[in-house]
Specification:
By secondary structure, this protein is of the alpha/beta class. It is built from 13 helices and 20 strands. The strands form four sheets. Strands 3, 4, 5, 6, 7, 8, 9, 10, 11, 12, 13 and 14 form a twelve-stranded mixed β-sheet that branches. α10 runs parallel beside α11. InterPro entries: ANL_N_sf, CapK_Type1_Caps_Biosynth, CHP02304_F390_synth-rel. This is Adenylate cyclase.
């Protein structure tokens, strides 16, 4: 670990947060950072050198966006350390099977990400980038100053050298493997007594239940949700159980994208990434982000189109930051629900954002404790509800059916068959998706 790099990044992150008073200042500074990055990586990344073509570095925003498929297809010539994709996959899969995440390739940390969409991806992080990541996350998310004593409990599907980089003398780090049982986690947490609890929303929900039942006896001073969409229903439940605001870290294979401020507002980390917006609606609220991360050099991320659906916050945050604020991370474009148009003489399809499906369930009844909604096909939706035991499940199901039908009908779409199945508790080993489309849909062809 490059401790001086970590400390320098910690100080820099704290300073940059206060440096910019206008968006114009920030954007000019970002532009300089990206051009400096291009100067460093173009000589060692054949993929980006060819992609730039005749464009000057000042025209970097004119680059056609790439996606995960293209990045993985050109992985060998995209990364700057000449690391072969097959070799990286072999090491990452070996780590998954042995649960030993310490091996590196050429001094580079290799990680495997399934992503919310289920498509496998690789990420590479060099030692200097690892130290910078640690400095950034500590500056943005640690409660108290760097020299305060903290015990961090980190729940993830897979550990990484990236995460253990924050393990310093006064800052202890403990990895909790999501594949282990809840009983094991509760026993170990009671012994560890974390001051910071970091976990996917589904695991935080299970721990919150254990706390309410008296089995979990911890009182962290900060609770952070990662890796999954934080549903408002889960957020309220977790906050009530721990008597703490639930913070979020929005991170994926493509980078550390956003974290919450002290007011709970999710701000894009515009001190390390440029987030351009490809709007999805006429109101210009929802968008796909196009990312350029000027902190990544081993695996450069330049104009990378992510298929997460984000909603921009319109009202200023009380913290006063000029960094872009997000209202919500709705999910993947893969989770847009598609229904046939209601007009029998018109053969077209209607899309509905996951957030509208989510809200339809939540407003239907206050008696719902947990839920999932899965679109199995254009004419079939499956709903699972966990209803407070004091209330009639059939009544709540009918309320949800009517609420979902009303939303779908309001878009002019044909209401599908909506059937109910028993709710299955989430195991924690896989990402929880409360709203999910599970059939393939080709928007261009207009059929499933």
């Amino acid at each position: 670990m490059e401790i001086m790099t970590l400390l320098a990044q910690y100080v820099r992150t704290k300073w940059l947060a206060r440096r910019f008073s206008t968006r114009e200042q920030l954007e000019k500074w970002q532009d300089r950072q990206v051009k400096a990055l291009l100067n460093r990586i173009l000589p060692v990344s054949p993929f980006y050198l060819k992609r730039m073509g005749a464009l000057s570095k000042a025209e970097w925003r004119k680059l056609a966006p790439i996606d995960k498929k293209l990045m993985m297809e050109h992985f060998d010539e995209l990364n700057t350390r000449r690391i072969a994709k097959e070799e990286a996959f072999r090491l990452a899969l070996q780590a998954e099977n042995t649960r030993d995440f310490t091996p590196q390739l050429k001094g580079v940390t290799v990680g495997l990400s399934s992503g919310t969409s289920g498509n496998r991806g690789l990420f590479l992080v060099g030692p200097k980038e690892q130290a910078k990541w640690a400095g950034t996350i500590m500056a943005k998310m640690l409660p108290g100053p760097l020299w305060s004593e903290q015990r961090i409990a980190f729940f993830l599907r897979a550990n990484s050298n990236l995460y253990t980089a924050v393990d310093r003398r006064r800052i202890q780090f403990a990895f909790f493997d999501l594949q282990n049982s809840l009983a094991e986690h509760v026993e170990r947490l009671n012994r560890y007594q974390p001051t910071v609890l970091v976990a996917p929303a589904s695991m935080l929900r299970m721990l919150a239940t254990a706390k309410q039942q008296g089995a979990l006896r911890v009182s962290p001073i900060k609770v952070i949700s990662v890796a999954e969409v934080l549903d408002p229903l889960d957020q309220a439940y977790i906050q009530d159980s721990f008597a703490q605001l639930v913070h979020q870290v929005y991170q994926c294979t493509e980078g550390l994208l956003a974290v919450t401020c002290e007011h709970g507002t999710l701000h894009v980390n515009e001190d390390i990434v440029v987030m351009e917006k490809e709007y999805l609606d006429e109101q210009k609220e929802r968008f796909f982000p196009i990312l350029t991360d000027f902190s990544r050099e081993t695996q450069p991320i330049i104009r990378y189109r992510l298929n997460d659906i984000l909603t921009e916050r319109r009202t200023p945050c009380p913290c006063g930051s000029v960094f872009m604020a997000l209202e919500a991370i709705e999910g993947r474009s893969d989770d847009l629900f598609w229904f046939r148009h209601g007009h029998e003489n018109e053969e077209r399809w209607i899309s509905i954002f996951p957030d509208f499906i989510r809200r339809a369930v939540m407003v239907a009844s206050a008696k719902i404790e947990e839920y999932t909604v899965r679109q199995l096909g254009a004419e079939q939706v499956e709903v699972a509800l966990l209803v407070n035991g004091q209330h009639s499940e059939q009544e709540v199901q009918e309320e949800v059916r009517q609420s979902l039908a009303a939303v779908i009908r309001s878009y002019g779409a044909v209401v599908p068959a909506i059937h109910f199945v028993p709710y299955q508790p989430h195991s924690g080993a896989k990402k929880l998706r409360r709203v999910e489309r599970v059939f393939a849909f080709d928007e261009q062809k207009g059929r499933d």
